[in-house]
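Tip: read the tokens left to right.
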């Protein structure tokens, strides 16, 4: 019979790698569902820390923070210990985490599936039984977004980590650091990292008297505002300036109201863009939304007042004169306040100056008629009493509308001399003279009608011009009022409030 071969333990150890021998020793009779303590009354202390790699996204609409981080777990497994000298001074071994007992630490405020986000990784096992496990994870945590100061807002997002089933008597979780490790942090283009802190809390839930510890990681971030300044804030400021230009357009242009309505439509588009990215909540109202609403209100009021200014401008001959109080307030005081020089005389001034012939210029029609009358009178040798009275009235009319230039003044003097001093010796007039006087009387009749018509037209034009001047002054005054309101609103909402809120 052949002699049985006895295996040589030395040769078998030489053919098996040290890590494999150590792994076989560690996993022999190892149960991953049992806590790594020999005494059931002892607890397992988990040292927890977080290394932030990158802020992937901040979904304001769904209020979810997406981060890329490493979840650091460290604990002592009493069942795993060896002498490094027996394994060629091997003090650390990497073992797949699924083959070891792992603490059931989860993200309580997880906004995604609890089975996703963790990468299957190895755990580092030391010879004294210490296990370090740091799986890279993509976390989607719920974060209550405060959009009050959008786009100058800062957010504080908390991530709550704790054991799902073990209480403090079985598994205790302790923070390994007071802050998040950002040594490998990659900056985000939209959000900047301000700071972080780590806190440990103990909570007693209504299901029992057990204490459940947890570690909460707070990440403080702020929004980078350059994008929003260039794409939202500056266009809103330009729209405000455009709405002010409605007061600079002349009323005759017919585009004042059109410009205001166009600006209102632009504000509506910006409101829709902001509403799409904001959460549908009534707890907070974004600052930029308040600013746009105020701007729309100011623009709407400016359109209404523009209609009022146009009504003043087109107060034509069917309207009464400008009231005395309005003339005193607008044309006398408000025009000085806005430095608007008056270009017209009021209808009252025109009426007052109508009775001052030396300050009134004749129209060309009056000059021509007076010259015709003068030529006819000079050709008449004998004048009777009744035509003389008519000629004297013509003299008064000619003196009232005489021009200041030398030619018209000379004609008025000749006309006054010839008709003002009739001859004392009257003789019988021929038929030709009588016909001439009849023609002259007819001319004087039509002259009076034309002068009266011209006076009525001047009165109407004076009223129209005075109303237009009132509209110009009111328009200029409203421009400065709305410029002040717009400037103050912009400075307060865009500069001062975000500046004070940051402190």
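Filled-in amino acids:
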């Amino acid at each position: 019979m052949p002699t049985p071969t006895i295996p040589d333990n030395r040769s078998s150890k030489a053919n098996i790698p040290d890590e494999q021998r150590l792994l076989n020793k560690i996993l022999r009779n190892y149960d991953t569902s049992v806590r790594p303590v020999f005494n059931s009354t002892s607890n397992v202390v988990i040292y927890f820390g977080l290394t932030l790699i990158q802020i992937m996204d901040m979904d304001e609409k769904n209020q979810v923070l997406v981060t890329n981080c490493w979840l650091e777990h460290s604990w002592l497994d009493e069942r795993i210990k060896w002498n490094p000298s027996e394994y060629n001074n091997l003090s650390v071994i990497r073992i797949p985490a699924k083959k070891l007992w792992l603490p059931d630490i989860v993200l309580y405020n997880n906004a995604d599936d609890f089975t996703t986000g963790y990468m299957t990784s190895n755990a580092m096992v030391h010879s004294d039984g210490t296990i370090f496990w740091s799986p890279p994870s993509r976390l989607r945590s719920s974060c209550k977004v405060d959009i009050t100061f959008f786009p100058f807002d800062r957010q504080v997002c908390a991530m709550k980590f704790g054991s799902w089933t073990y209480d403090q008597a079985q598994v205790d979780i302790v923070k390994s650091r007071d802050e998040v490790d950002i040594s490998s942090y990659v900056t985000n283009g939209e959000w900047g990292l301000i700071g972080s802190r780590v806190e440990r809390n103990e909570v007693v839930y209504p299901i029992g008297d057990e204490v459940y510890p947890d570690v909460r990681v707070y990440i403080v971030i702020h929004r980078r505002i350059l994008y929003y300044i260039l794409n939202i804030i500056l266009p809103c400021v330009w729209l405000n300036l455009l709405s002010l230009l409605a007061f600079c357009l002349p009323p005759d242009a017919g585009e004042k109201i059109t410009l205001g309505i166009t600006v209102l439509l632009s504000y509506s588009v910006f409101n829709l863009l902001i509403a799409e990215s904001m959460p549908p909540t009534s707890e907070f109202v974004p600052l930029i939304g308040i600013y746009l609403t105020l701007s729309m209100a100011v623009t709407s009021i400016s359109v209404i007042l523009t209609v009022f200014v146009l009504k003043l401008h087109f107060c034509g001959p069917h309207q009464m004169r400008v009231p005395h109080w309005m003339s005193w307030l607008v044309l006398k005081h408000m025009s000085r306040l806005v430095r608007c020089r008056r270009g017209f005389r009021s209808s009252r001034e025109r009426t007052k100056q109508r009775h001052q012939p030396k300050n009134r210029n004749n129209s060309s029609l009056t000059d021509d008629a007076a010259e015709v009358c003068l030529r006819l009178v000079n050709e008449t040798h004998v004048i009777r009493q009744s035509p003389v009275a008519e000629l004297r009235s013509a003299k008064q009319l000619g003196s009232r509308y005489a021009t200041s230039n030398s030619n018209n003044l000379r004609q008025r003097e000749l006309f006054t001399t010839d008709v003002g001093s009739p001859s004392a010796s009257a003789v019988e007039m021929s038929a030709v003279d009588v016909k001439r006087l009849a023609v002259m009387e007819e001319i004087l009749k039509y002259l009076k009608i034309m002068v009266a018509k011209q006076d009525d037209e001047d009165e109407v034009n004076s009223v129209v011009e005075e109303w237009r001047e009132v509209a110009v002054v009111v328009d200029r005054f409203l421009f400065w009022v709305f410029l002040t309101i717009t400037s103050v609103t912009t400075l307060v909402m865009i500069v001062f409030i975000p500046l004070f809120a940051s402190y």
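Residues 19-223 form a domain with the Acetylcholine Binding Protein; Chain: A, fold (CATH 2.70.170.10). The CA atoms of residues 37 and 78 lie 6 Å apart.
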